[in-house]
Amino acid sequence: WVQEEAPDVLCLQETKCEGSSVPPEVRGLPGLPHQFWASAEGRPGYSGVGLLAKTEPLKVTYGIGSPEHDPEGRVITAEFPSLFVVSAYVPNAGRGLCRLEPRLRWDSAFLAFLRRLDALKPVVLCGDLNVAHAELDLCHPGANRRSAGFTPQERQGFSRLLGAGFLDSFRLLYPAARGAFTFWTYLGGARARNVGWRLDYVVLSRRLEGALCDSKIRSAVMGSDHCPVTAYLAL
């Protein structure tokens, strides 16, 4: 699928491995020779992100400048001549919302980080943001108002991101699309019945709106409980 899609930049989340453990078939992906990996410190099999690029970035950084969150290996940022690309795996609020408070601290710190980048050049944020922003973005909103990923606090966090000058590329182009999900639990045949959530996004700085050509959810691509999303920009 990656070879068919032929992305200029491929962002991966919840990789659950250190760079040295990345499988050789990923290391050897044609057209993506520049590869960068982050993993959780001292927690094998937890979290982790990757960023693979066709052309070498000007600079790559890890984390968001937060001593609380950076050890979990959740963010890689690549600077290119015209923009930043951020691969991010946002923390889950946890079963019973046991990690909601750390998640809300993350939202605040992450927004401050993105604003700092945006002050320098436009930003493309790609990743599992672990929030369904609107009722359209999950199959059963009524039953999940106190579920991780759909609490009022998490949804407000995403609203603050949009209010800070960023765009949800998919909803910008498809504001009324229903059943457009990127995650389905493995339980109960959820994917076959399309009982899902839209948790994966490409978020853009507002000044990239004119460059956005399309934003697609690749729901037919198997291999995970999430599916890929793709954005096309004319830069």
Automatic annotation (TrEMBL):
SUPFAM superfamilies: DNase I-like
Entry protein name: exodeoxyribonuclease III
The organism's taxonomic lineage, starting at the top: Eukaryota, Metazoa, Chordata, Craniata, Vertebrata
Cofactor stoichiometry and binding remark: Probably binds two magnesium or manganese ions per subunit.
Organism superkingdom: Eukaryota
Marked site (Important for catalytic activity) residue numbers: 200
One function term, GO molecular function aspect: DNA-(apurinic or apyrimidinic site) endonuclease activity
Subcellular location, principal: nucleus
A Pfam family assignment: Exo_endo_phos
Gene (name only): Apex1
Alphabetical UniProt keywords: Cytoplasm, DNA damage, DNA repair, DNA-binding, Endonuclease, Hydrolase, Lyase, Magnesium, Manganese, Metal-binding, Mitochondrion, Nuclease, Nucleus
Residues marked Interaction with DNA substrate (site): 226
Cofactor entry: Mg(2+); Mn(2+)
